[in-house]
Amino acid sequence: MKPSTKYSSAAIAIHWLAALLILGAIAMGVYMTSLQISPARLKLYNWHKWLGITILALSLVRLAWRATHRPPADLPMPPWQRRAAHLTHWTMYALFFAVPLAGWTYSSATGFPVVVFGVLPLPDLVPADKTLAEVLKSLHVGLALALGAAIALHIAAVLKHQLLDRDGILSRMVPRAFESQAQ
Known about the structure:
The chain is an all-alpha fold and 183 residues long.
């Protein structure tokens, strides 16, 4: 029996849901920080925190799924590309956890709690501390920028494989309903 070259429907759903949430959180983070202090800005900060916690929880689900389900067989590619792909994927996995945790810790240090969906208060990870908050803010922003760069690299590699190599790599991660457009 030939090993599958396609991810499972669950893995595909988790991937695209995470992608939408992460890109939304990055876009919201950039936008909200450009606003003057206002009720709208405060609302966006709360939504951004909710997205971050949701991404953190989904990342746990994603990691558990990945640990218990083998990925499809690798497509033929030079060893350096395979190593680069694995390094990029594991870097993104680490950042899926590091970015929201840094944001949660930053929020704790500012003295503004994270209350998920306005009903579930999360514990503060550190006591309120203005100096620590500034360090954590920079850390959160830096990690988010690193995640954005890793995502850009991931997308560029997919486009290279899809448009130049024409090796069908995108069809591995698209829902079956979109397979004809990905080939």
